[in-house]
Design goal:
Layout: E1 4-13, E2 16-26, E3 31-35, H1 42-50, E4 57-62, H2 72-77, E5 78-81, H3 93-105, H4 109-121, H5 137-149, E6 155-159, H6 167-182, E7 186-190, H7 194-199, E8 202-205
Parallel strand pairs: 3-7, 3-8, 5-6, 6-7
Antiparallel strand pairs: 1-2, 1-4
Helix pairs in contact: 3-4
Keywords: ATP-binding, Nucleotide-binding
GO molecular function: ATP binding; ATP hydrolysis activity
Organism: Streptomyces pacificus
Amino acid sequence: MPAIAAEDATVVLDGTTLLAPTTFAVMPGELWCLTGSNGSGKTTLLRAFLGSRRLTDGAVRVQGETVDPARPRHRRLIASLVEPVPVARDMTLREQVTLVAASWYGNTTTTAEHAEEVIGQLGLSALGERFPSQLSSGQLQLFSLALTLVRPAGAVLLDEPERHLDTDRVDLVTTLLTERAEQGTSFLIATHETALVDACDGVTELG
Ligand SMILES: Nc1ncnc2c1ncn2[C@@H]1O[C@H](COP(=O)(O)OP(=O)(O)OP(=O)(O)O)[C@@H](O)[C@H]1O
């Protein structure tokens, strides 16, 4: 069964097509990219998977089911960085990543080690004691990715994870996502970044 699938997924609003009929299937452990010009419907499609944008035709499914964010099982299944992740102004980067990890895995030493590992994988170890206001735009993006990737998920939806990142950081993120995919996580990634597209198992071009 595909982990993430769209069947003729379509969004039309007041006679304007936001998303033309789109079909694809992402198998478990695959990294899948959505490409296309500005306004071609990538974010609209990701929002449809999260239940925040209603389709006018077709269907989108995660592990064979329409996503209902109110269901705890679906919340555990899907992690996303599509809308901005809320951050606390008065907690350090390390405290926040560890808190999110602890909310899913429990407050244990192993959880703290897992959080530290993700912080390290995203090149943020030296910034662990910083507050969000003390981070650059690219560092904030890496922090948002850490908050997204530190929690359990069978499917991860990302909207332009390359935002604000330099070439080395794009490579870092691409390596991490590829490793996670090899461990079984499925990814659907809207992107304009060639390096990410090159690493993908499949690409759907919108528009
Ligand atoms: N609330 C809305 N009302 C009307 N049209 C909208 C609304 N939100 C988005 N759109 C339109 O829907 C289309 C798809 O937008 P979407 O954000 O999905 O594109 P995208 O492929 O993610 O673009 P980008 O590469 O610029 O991020 C665009 O033409 C946009 O103008």
